[in-house]
């Protein structure tokens, strides 16, 4: 069983920065993919960024150049550095780990990010 705990969300002004962290407990050695998703009110959950165990990354077009995902396998953690935040980045951000892209994987409880204009 894997448990994920996110932290680092909060309220920030437009143009500001936040760093999200996700700490995993349990066995994640087979969890190739670690990623961040977000869900804004009235919208579907969407991929923000994901990182493979070899370091390969994918980003949503809306965050490219502003957000950076990283992982520390020894600490069983994944991070999301968010710069140049915009009001449209406001959402609950969820951490996810999975063995393959076809898996549902495990989800954290989410952390709220609010960007004021």
Short description, anyone?
This protein has strands at residues 3-7, 10-13, 18-25, 33-39, 46-51, 57-59, 67-72, 77-82, 91-98, 106-107, 111-116. With 117 residues, the chain is an all-beta fold.
Structure description:
By secondary structure, the chain is mainly β. Helices cover 0% and strands 52% of the residues. The chain has strands at residues 3-7, 10-13, 18-25, 33-39, 46-51, 57-59, 67-72, 77-82, 91-98, 106-107, 111-116.
How are the elements arranged and paired?
Blueprint: E1 3-7, E2 10-13, E3 18-25, E4 33-39, E5 46-51, E6 57-59, E7 67-72, E8 77-82, E9 91-98, E10 106-107, E11 111-116
Parallel strand pairs: 2-11
Antiparallel strand pairs: 1-3, 3-8, 4-5, 4-9, 5-6, 7-8, 9-10, 9-11
Strand content: over 45%
> Which residues sit in consecutive blocks of at least 5 with pLDDT less than 50?
none
Q: How widely separated are the two ends? A: 40 Å
Largest sheet descriptor: 7 strands, mixed
SSE succession: EEEEEEEEEEE
Count up the helices: 0
Features:
single chain, mainly beta, 0% helix
């Amino acid at each position: 069983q894997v448990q994920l705990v996110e932290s680092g969300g909060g309220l920030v002004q437009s143009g500001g920065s936040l760093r999200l962290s996700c700490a995993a407990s349990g066995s994640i050695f087979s969890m190739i993919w670690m990623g961040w998703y977000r869900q804004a009110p009235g919208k579907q959950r969407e991929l923000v960024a994901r990182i493979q165990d070899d370091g390969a990354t994918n980003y949503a077009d809306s965050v490219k150049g502003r957000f950076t995902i990283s992982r520390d396998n020894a600490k069983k953690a994944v991070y999301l550095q968010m710069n140049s935040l915009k009001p449209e980045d406001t959402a609950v951000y969820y951490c996810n780990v999975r063995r393959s892209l076809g898996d549902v994987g495990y989800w954290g409880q989410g952390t709220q990010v609010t960007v004021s204009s």
